[in-house]
Amino acid sequence: LMPFRLPRPEVAFVSWVGLRGAVSILLAITPLLGGLEHGRLIFNVAFIIVLVSLVVQGWTVGPLARRLG
């Protein structure tokens, strides 16, 4: 976003609310498809981490927006 010369608070906000977890979930599916012994565990751990990060992001997006103006 820097090449578009957006103000720093807007860049910070967009980086906080950007896409979360899509690549992580996709990469966690790979061991399942490959038939690895602990593939299901890897997927479950990645899914829970993505879910928790989304919940934390959801709780903090309002206060962050107010703080950044």
Descriptive tags:
single chain; mainly alpha; 77% helix; elongated
Give a description of the structure.
By secondary structure, the protein is mainly α. It has one domain (2-68). It has 3 helices and no strands. The chain has helices at residues 8-17, 22-34, 39-68. The longest helix has 30 residues, at 39-68. The two termini are 18 Å apart.
Secondary structure elements and their pairing?
Blueprint: H1 8-17, H2 22-34, H3 39-68
- The total number of structural domains is 1
Number of helices: 3
Task: Give the structural class.
Answer: mainly alpha
Name the overall outline: elongated
Helicity, in percent?
Answer: over 70%
Give the H and E element order: HHH
Number of strands: 0
Quaternary assembly = single chain
Give the distance, in angstroms, between the N- and C-terminal Cα atoms: 18 Å
Strand content: under 5%
Reported for the largest beta sheet, the result is: none
Q: What's the mean pLDDT score?
A: 88
Radius of gyration: 16 Å
Low-confidence stretches: none
